[in-house]
Amino acid sequence: MAVSSNSIPLLVGNNLSRRSILGGLAIASVGGVAAKDVPQQNIPVASAQRAMTAHERYEHHLAELKKAAEEIDPRIALWDGFSNLGDEDEDDIVMMISAHLRKGRYEGDGDYETQHGEVYRVRLLDQLQEGRRMFAYIGHRGPEHVIREDRLEAFIVRKVF
Q1: Which of 43, 72, 109, 132 is the most exposed place for a label (fewest CB within 10 A)?
Q2: Residue 7: how many other CB atoms lie within 10 Å
């Protein structure tokens, strides 16, 4: 293939002419001028981030751990845990995190069996807590208890009647 003195050979087999190069430079310079003429808007400039405290890092990484665990196993219904980190009087367990799997779903008021074979009467209440439905349940003996939906799903296995 003959190469013109006004073009540059490229490795891909096409030639790049001076006209193409100059045209590209002209477009780039007009773009720069046009960008200067655009009125500046109140675009927030990234400021230097302050360093996170140890407590903030702990909360951030705990949230990331929970998010990753829920992606791995979507059956996780709720999290329990506590932390006594930094408590100088604590000499036993200072942190515990547990994930409880969803074992059952509410299918209307009635009797539900737990994983241990116990049967509880469950009824839906007309209230929400933290955006979740609330339920009352009572066993064959004892007082009635109130529980959030995520805890109920980790507690019951199936509706028996």
Answers
A1: 43
A2: 16
* Cα 153 to Cα 75: distance, rounded to the nearest angstrom: 10
Handedness of CA 106, 100, 113, 143 (dihedral sign): negative
**Mean predicted lDDT score pLDDT of the chain:** 79
């979740």: which residue's tokens? Answer: 132
Q: Which residue's structure tokens are 């939906």?
A: 149
Strand extents, DSSP E, 3-150: 7-9, 15-17, 76-83, 95-101, 110-114, 119-129, 132-138, 145-148
Least confidently predicted of 34-38, 96-100, 117-121: 34-38
pLDDT tens digits, 54-74: 889 999 999 999 999 999 999
Task: Please tell me the distance from the alpha carbon of residue 115 to that of residue 122, in angstroms, as a whole number.
Answer: 15
How many CA atoms lie within 13 Å of 158's alpha carbon, on the beta-carbon side?
2
Confidence of residue 28 (pLDDT cuts 50, 70, 90): very low
Burial of 15 (0-12, 13-18, 19+ CB in 10 A): middle
